Amino acid sequence: MKKIKDLGDLNQKIVLLRVDLNVPLQNNKILDATRIKKVIPTISHLLSENAKIIIITHVGRPKGKKIIELSLQPICDYLKSELNLKIKLITENLNNLNKKNIFSNNDEKVLLLENIRFYPEEEKDDIEFAKKLASLGDIYVNEAFSCSHRAHASVSKITKFIPSYGGLHLSNEIDALYQITHNIKKPVSCIIGGSKISTKIKVITNLATKYDNIIVVGAMANNFIKYNNHNIGKSVFEKNSELIVKEIYDSAKLNDCKIIYPKDFLVGKNLNDFSNNRKINEIENDDIILDIGLETIKYIKNIINNSKTILWNGPAGYFENENFATGSYEIAKEISVKTKNSKLFSVIGGGDTVSVLNKLNLIHNFSFVSTAGGAFLEYLEGKELPGIKSLN
Q: Cα 186 from chain centroid?
């Protein structure tokens, strides 16, 4: 893959920069700007090379219709403030734009195209639409790894018509994911959570062929606990998951990978309750498992300390209630310390996991933190991502 840092002279070149600024909005206010902050270094790099930038991104799922609540105006305002620069939001239909008139004067350096998903051709991966987009610039840069599992016009098809490169952050993401899937320093362990095991079975079975330990936490672990004939009370679990769990165990056994699930828990009678520590054989019928217990935390910490590579995706419990955040917080702190001491290569992914790190202000203490969701998981499944393939 050609990378942006390998580019030569960018003076006055128009760079089409595809980013993922799909941030949560409420009443035209940004609730979490993490994704925007991650692309600032790339924008700054291009500006330092005296390039002109046209930012392409989306928010939400307007399905090809103009929805005022999904306008990029709040994001444009945020970028202006963050970069201390005049940035114009282009609301005119891009089919009426051309390379010569899109920048109205020489002083303009950054433009932001209105929500690209307002155009139905985007999600249809329309080749003529991609060609039109490409005609607006000299160079295309994909800085949207989190969109790269989508075969959309501004992600994959556009590269057929314009010299195309991977962005700084996208390149770092691929390098980090390559290091935890191919160029692995062993022992290697995965801590994986979430609510649905069916959404992550392919990730787990793929990693089981390469990893030494897979630690299942969160609501997903309840399926393993139930499978092993333990009571889970009123806890969340996925119905008819027995065959999935068996497939995971069979794959792990075949590849000498340990599947580990919690042996004690913090439980409550409801989501707003206080926590009680229970061992696996002490769960009552009206208990809800909401976090891992103290012995399990100690056991996981020991695995972390004996690993050289860690992948963490999914919190250990219902961290939204501080009474059930202990497991996630302790895992985050342990991985953070080991990483800072250069004893561990750590990759963290998933929106809820990133929220845990933000709560503890530890976001910068890991080898790599991914804000990608579906693309992150599909890469871990071993799938080929259209947005990455198109850059090769």
A: 24
Q: Which two tokens stand for residue 190?
A: 């995965």
CA–CA distance, 388 with 384 (Å, rounded to integer):
8
Q: What is the pLDDT of residue 47?
A: 94
Amino acid residing at 182: H
With CA atoms as reference, report the closest residue to 158 among 189, 174, 136.
136
Answer whether 251's CB lies under 8 Å from 228's CB: no
Question: Which residues form the domain of 274?
Answer: 177-381
Strands 258-260 and 29-30, bridge-based pairing: unpaired
pTM over 0.90: no
Domains contained in the chain, number: 2
Q: What is the mean pLDDT of the chain?
A: 94
Strands (DSSP E) along 11-145, which ranges? 14-19, 25-26, 29-30, 52-56, 87-90, 110-113, 139-143
Question: pLDDT by residue (tens digit) across 278-295?
Answer: 999 999 999 999 999 999
Distances (CA, A) of 204 to 11, 31, 216, 308, 366: 46, 32, 10, 19, 22
Assign 263 to helix, strand or coil: coil
Buried b / exposed e along 336-364 (16+ C-beta atoms within 10 A): bebbeeeebbbbbbbebbbbbbebeebbe
Question: Pairing state of beta strands 188-192 and 29-30?
Answer: unpaired
Can you tell me the distance from the alpha carbon of 175 to that of 31, in angstroms, rounded to the nearest whole number?
Answer: 29
* One domain, residues 181 and 230: yes
Residues whose CB is less than 8 angstroms from the CB of residue 74 and which lie 6 or more positions away in sequence, other chains included: 25, 28, 29, 30
Contact 259, 212 (CB under 8 A): no
Judge whether 323 and 277 are in contact, CB under 8 Å.
no
Q: How confident is the model at residue 351 (pLDDT cuts 50, 70, 90)?
A: confident
Residue 102 belongs to a domain = yes
Residue 362 falls within a domain, yes or no? yes
Q: CA 82 to CA 4: how far, in whole Å?
A: 22
Q: At 13, which CATH number? A: 3.40.50.1260
Torsion from C-alpha of 19, 25, 31, 33, nearest 10 degrees: 10
